[in-house]
Amino acid sequence: MTNREFRGAILEAIDQIFSLALALEIITMMIAFIGIVNTLMASVIDRTREIGVVRSLGATKQQVGTIFFFQSGLLGLFGTSIGAVAGYGLGVLQVTRLNEVLAGWKMPVRIDETTVAIAFIGAVVFSVLGGLSPARAAANLTLRDALKYE
Length: 150
What we know:
The protein is mainly α. It has one domain (3-148). It is built from six helices and no strands. It has helices spanning 3-46, 48-56, 61-103, 113-130, 132-139, 143-148. 15% of the residues are buried.
């Protein structure tokens, strides 16, 4: 096998690994979406009486929905920030140290800021979309049922 053929085979294997990583990213985003919806719905159920008290003090349905809408955005923002920092650290460890120890290869660390920004914004938008249903559920609680809830 010539050097060019060997390099081509290695690059093809790397492309296959990144294709697998993309599939894992999509699955991770779906799981995160379900987790956000689940967390916020549990929060609505847990805070039903609190929602009733806030509504009885004069808050509108829109204001109650906005609370949960912003909560989902903040959940996505902080979760994505922590994930980005942890992912960067683990990625640098993988590329710099583990590849050298396990395969004997040294690779430079390159970060594509555009891809990171798109992924970051996409994750936050995804979390906000996940908060729409819980926000609507919180806003549509009737005052009587919310105050009666134990």
